Each structure stands twice: as structure tokens, then as C-alpha cells.
């Protein structure tokens, strides 16, 4: 505890740095995964190819990816941008399948009815498919948030500061309180971002909660009709 | 007027859903397509608004081949109501009704004001305007679907088993409501059902389809009952059995009409 009180400034600063690494990676992986997920959803051939590629990506050990990127991007190994790119790639690998599932989850009936009343293909994507994929996309983003915040700590090993620096420093100097602080702070950060994403989801998808219970109701209704 | 000229639809997998169909659907009348599941009703209906394009023949609206028209613009001018309402679950009732006018570039104020009037037209309380579709009953959802179909005041209204998923009491109510609306509005309605009673109730012209997407008979309900084109039609409409095979017996000096099972259906008044 003493250690924490005398190093509050440092912990606060590292939290901000950690945020600055993870938030852009989370947003980027979401934005990039949506079109990839849509493509995977849209065509049978692309689904297999895209999902396998993302699976492979995820199988690359994180340290290896951090080290392999600089020669390709021309960035320094210790550049935070290098880490953000690596985190984004992992984020995409994590969320693409969910993003394809999200578009699969839009009922064909609703897509057809949107077409029937005169939505163009583009208008239908923005006005119907994307919002209706929202709840499942959000569940994917929540997984990405937790995995990105936790993975960002590994950057400390290659010298990109983050809350992970508290582990590396704590190990080197044998300060247990520092290590524990690092772990707790990482968890708190992940939970805070998760909570924020749920809040944003509630604002953007106000319809998704009542309809979830109603969908169960209408399923029950259909089953009754079928039974009759 | 909608006219099918030798229209065939074969899907890429080889299924012939509609074969060599010739039919005229007169303006301001209701044409009902009736047949069992898989007889090509939906496919036939969807060739009118180019959701499906024929592989042979032509579909004309007021003499114009629909194939020459932009599908999106064409659909924005034709009302479409389907089973399970097809409402957008993430848009409020009012937004659902105003969708197509907004797509067509009508101003927001005007679109919403008109949408509220349409709720009146289909017998829905305006207080439902701010609900999401999932917060409505099945019958109410179908009414919203009809309101949405009417929103651009289309000449043509396509309805694909619109009352198929609601319970029989609500269905009867919606059928009466549609008859009332049609009496007021006089749209060219094309209505799909697999229920012959519904077809006879709503149709000025009834088109009986059989497997393979062929038309067995297209005529008024009375003509079909009087002269079924073949055994398939006679069997399908039940002309020789049950409640449609009526005969007259005299009871205390009055002519009572009874069905094949002997149940009274009414009294002859002349
Ligand atoms: N997109 C499609 N691809 C292949 N076959 C189809 C397609 N849509 C419908 N069919 C087939 O065409 C036939 C007629 O279908 P449909 O018009 O939906 O019949 P109905 O509405 O009378 O039940 C059925 O055999 C159906 O399986
Ligand atoms: Mg059908």
C-alpha cells in the first residue's frame, strides 16, 4: 500500500499511456473487422478464407509479432505505434468471426423486407444490416477490449511503457506491491472500458433490450402455432 | 393494371418456380394468388417489384415492362406487406411507417404527420407511434405493416400471406379491415394466401396455382365454384364436399340451406 501511495502519479500516468495504446487498437480493430466480417458473411468462399487467415494471425505468438512488425512497417521496435498495429491485428483476429456472425444474425426476412420497400444495397447496409448486427458486434467488442488491455502489457517486455511496466519493474526490483498494483490496475482499466462500451451500446441500440425479451415471446408464439 | 405475358422463372439450381404464366390483374381490384406451399405464389408476386426477375416472358405495369425500370425506384412506388410484418425491429413504429417516404426524399415533418394519419387509417392508436415493433401484438404489427405499405399512396399493394401468422380471430378482424380499406382506397391489390376461404373472401379475381408454378384457373370466386376448370381445382376449393356442397331442404315451409354434413348454413330468402 505504501508503495502505491508514493507512486500514485506513476500509476496514473501509466494508466493513461495504457489507454492511449489500447483504445486506438480497439477502435481500429472494430472498424476494420466490420467490412471483413461482412465479406465473410456475404460469400461462402470468402468466409472460409477470411476466418482461417484470422485464426492463423491469432496463433502467432505476441512477442514474435511485435518483433516481426518493425521490418515491415519501418518503425522502431520500441515505437508505441508498432504496438498499436500489433494489438489491432490481434483485435481483428479476435473479432472477425463474431463480426461475421453478427451479420449472419440479421434475419433474412427483415433484409428482404427492407429490399422490398426500396432500400438500395448501400442504404440497407447502413440503415438495416449494421444496426441490427449491433448487439452481436458489441459482444465481440467487449471481448476485444479485455484481450487488448491485457495484451498491451506484454509491450513492456520490448520496452514500450504501459501498466505492464509495473510487472517488469516489480519483478526486477522484487517489489511485490508494484506487481499487484499492475495487475489490479490492468483489470480495473479493462472493466472500465467494458462498462463504457456497454453504456455506448445502450445509447446506440436502445431497441435491443426490449426486443430481446419480445423475440423470446414471439418464438414462443410461433411454437404454439406450430404445435396447433 | 398488371400483366404477366408467358412468364417463366427458373432458379439457378434448376427449380422451375413459375411456368409460362399469362395473367391480367385488373386495376383497383384485388387479385388473390392461392395455392399450396411451393406453388410459386411468392415468386410470382416478387416478379412484380423485381425482387425476382423472370427468366422468360414479360411483366408489365400499365403497359410498361418492369425490366426497363430501376428496381429500387420501382419498389419505392409499390406497397409491400409480408408475413411477420417485416418491420425493422430497430426503428419505432412511426419511423417504420415513414421509412419509404423518407427514402423518397419527403421532408421529415410531412412524413411523420402523414405516418400518424396512416395509423388512424389502419385502426391503430397514435400512442403506439413511439413503440418498437417488438412491443406490439402480432395483429398490431401487421396493421403497422399495412400502414407502411400505404405510406407512399401506391397504386399497387403487394401482400404476401400478410395474415398468415396471426391467430384466427385477429385474422378475421384484419380481413374485414382490409375489405373496408380496399372499399375506400381502391388499390390494385395482389394478395397471396394458401387459405382458399381467405381467397374467396378477399378476391375479386382468384388465381389458383398448382405445383410447378402453373395456373389452374383464374376467375371470380363464384365462377370458380360454378365451373371448376378441372378436378384439381374442384378438389382444392372443396366444391363437392363439406361446407361448400350445399343443398336445400324444406323445413316448415321454408328453404333451409345445409352443407354436406347436414349442418345448416342459412335460409334462402327468395
Ligand atoms: N431463391 C430460390 N432459389 C431456388 N429455389 C427457389 C428460390 N425461391 C423459391 N424457390 C423454389 O421455388 C418454388 C416456389 O417457391 P415460392 O414462390 O416461394 O412458393 P410459395 O410462395 O407458393 O410457397 C419452391 O419449390 C421453392 O423451393
Ligand atoms: Mg410464399
TrEMBL record, chain A:
Keyword Disulfide bond appears in the UniProt entry: no
Q: What is this protein called?
A: Osmoprotectant transport system permease protein
Quote the subcellular location field of this record.
Answer: Cell membrane; Membrane
The record's section on PANTHER family has: GLYCINE BETAINE/L-PROLINE TRANSPORT SYSTEM PERMEASE PROTEIN PROW, OSMOPROTECTANT IMPORT PERMEASE PROTEIN OSMW
UniProt-listed SUPFAM superfamilies: MetI-like
Which InterPro entries does the entry link to? Answer: ABC_transp_perm/SBD, MetI-like, MetI-like_sf
Keywords for this protein: Membrane, Transmembrane, Transmembrane helix, Transport
Q: Which domain of life is it from?
A: Bacteria
Entry keyword Membrane: yes
The Swiss-Prot or TrEMBL record describes its family as follows:
Belongs to the binding-protein-dependent transport system permease family.
Question: Residue limits of the ABC transmembrane type-1 domain?
Answer: 15-197
Q: By its UniProt entry, which Pfam families does this protein fall under? A: BPD_transp_1
Q: Name one GO cellular component term.
A: plasma membrane
Q: How does it sit in the membrane?
A: Multi-pass membrane protein
Any transmembrane segments, and where?
15-36, 48-69, 143-167, 179-205
Sorted alphabetically, the Gene Ontology BP terms of this entry are:
glycine betaine transport; transmembrane transport
TrEMBL record, chain B:
Stretches assigned to the ABC transporter domain? 2-237
**Enzyme Commission (EC) number:** 7.6.2.9
Query: Which EC main class describes this enzyme?
Result: translocase
Gene Ontology MF terms: ABC-type quaternary ammonium compound transporting activity; ATP binding; ATP hydrolysis activity
**Record carries keyword Translocase:** no
Which controlled-vocabulary keywords does the entry list? Answer: ATP-binding, Nucleotide-binding, Transport
Protein family membership: Belongs to the ABC transporter superfamily.
Q: What is this protein called?
A: ABC-type quaternary amine transporter
Q: Which organism is it from?
A: Agromyces ramosus
Amino acid at each position: 500500500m505504501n508503495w502505491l501511495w508514493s507512486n500514485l502519479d506513476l500509476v496514473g500516468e501509466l494508466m493513461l499511456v495504457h489507454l492511449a495504446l489500447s483504445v486506438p487498437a480497439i477502435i481500429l480493430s472494430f472498424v476494420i473487422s466490420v467490412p471483413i466480417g461482412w465479406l465473410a458473411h456475404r460469400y461462402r468462399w470468402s468466409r472460409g478464407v477470411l476466418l482461417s487467415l484470422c485464426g492463423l494471425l491469432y496463433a502467432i505468438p505476441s512477442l514474435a509479432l511485435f518483433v516481426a512488425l518493425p521490418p515491415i512497417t519501418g518503425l522502431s521496435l520500441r515505437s508505441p505505434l508498432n504496438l498499436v498495429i500489433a494489438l489491432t491485428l490481434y483485435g481483428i483476429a479476435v473479432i472477425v468471426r463474431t463480426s461475421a456472425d453478427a451479420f449472419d444474425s440479421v434475419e433474412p426476412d427483415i433484409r428482404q423486407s427492407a429490399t422490398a420497400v426500396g432500400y438500395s444495397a448501400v442504404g440497407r447496409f447502413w440503415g438495416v444490416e449494421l444496426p441490427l448486427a449491433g448487439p452481436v458486434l458489441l459482444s465481440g467488442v467487449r471481448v476485444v477490449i479485455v484481450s487488448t488491455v491485457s495484451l498491451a502489457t506484454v509491450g513492456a517486455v520490448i520496452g514500450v511503457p504501459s501498466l505492464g511496466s509495473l510487472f517488469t519493474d516489480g519483478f526486477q526490483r522484487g517489489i511485490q506491491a508494484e506487481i499487484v498494483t499492475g495487475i489490479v490496475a490492468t483489470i480495473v482499466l479493462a472493466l472500465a472500458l467494458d462498462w463504457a462500451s456497454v453504456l455506448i451500446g445502450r445509447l446506440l441500440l436502445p431497441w435491443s433490450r426490449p426486443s430481446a425479451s419480445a423475440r423470446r415471446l414471439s418464438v414462443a408464439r410461433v411454437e404454439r402455432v406450430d404445435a396447433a | 393494371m398488371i400483366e404477366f405475358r408467358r412468364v417463366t422463372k427458373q432458379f439457378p439450381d434448376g427449380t422451375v418456380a413459375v411456368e409460362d404464366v399469362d395473367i391480367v390483374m385488373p386495376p383497383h381490384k384485388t387479385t388473390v394468388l392461392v395455392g399450396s406451399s411451393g406453388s410459386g405464389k411468392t415468386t410470382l408476386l416478387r416478379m412484380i417489384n423485381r425482387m425476382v426477375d423472370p427468366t422468360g416472358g414479360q411483366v408489365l405495369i400499365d403497359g410498361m415492362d418492369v425490366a426497363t425500370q430501376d428496381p429500387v425506384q420501382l419498389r419505392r412506388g409499390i406497397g409491400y406487406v409480408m408475413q411477420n410484418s417485416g418491420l425493422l425491429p430497430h426503428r419505432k413504429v412511426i419511423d417504420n411507417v415513414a421509412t419509404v417516404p423518407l427514402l423518397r426524399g419527403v421532408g421529415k415533418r410531412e412524413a411523420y404527420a402523414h405516418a400518424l394519419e396512416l395509423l388512424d387509417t389502419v385502426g391503430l392508436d397514435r400512442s403506439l407511434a413511439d413503440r418498437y415493433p417488438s412491443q406490439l401484438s402480432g395483429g398490431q404489427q401487421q396493421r403497422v405493416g399495412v400502414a407502411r405499405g400505404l405510406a407512399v399512396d401506391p397504386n399497387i399493394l403487394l401482400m404476401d400471406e400478410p395474415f398468415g401468422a396471426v391467430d384466427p380471430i385477429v385474422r378475421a378482424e384484419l380481413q374485414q379491415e382490409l375489405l373496408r380499406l380496399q372499399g375506400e382506397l381502391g388499390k390494385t391489390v395482389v394478395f397471396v394466401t394458401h387459405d382458399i376461404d381467405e381467397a374467396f373472401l378477399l378476391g375479386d379475381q382468384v388465381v389458383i396455382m398448382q405445383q410447378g408454378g402453373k395456373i389452374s384457373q383464374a376467375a371470380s370466386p363464384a365462377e370458380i365454384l360454378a365451373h371448376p376448370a378441372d378436378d384439381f381445382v374442384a378438389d382444392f376449393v372443396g366444391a363437392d364436399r363439406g361446407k361448400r356442397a350445399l343443398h336445400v331442404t324444406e323445413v316448415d315451409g321454408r328453404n333451409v340451406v345445409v352443407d354436406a354434413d347436414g349442418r345448416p348454413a342459412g335460409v334462402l330468402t327468395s
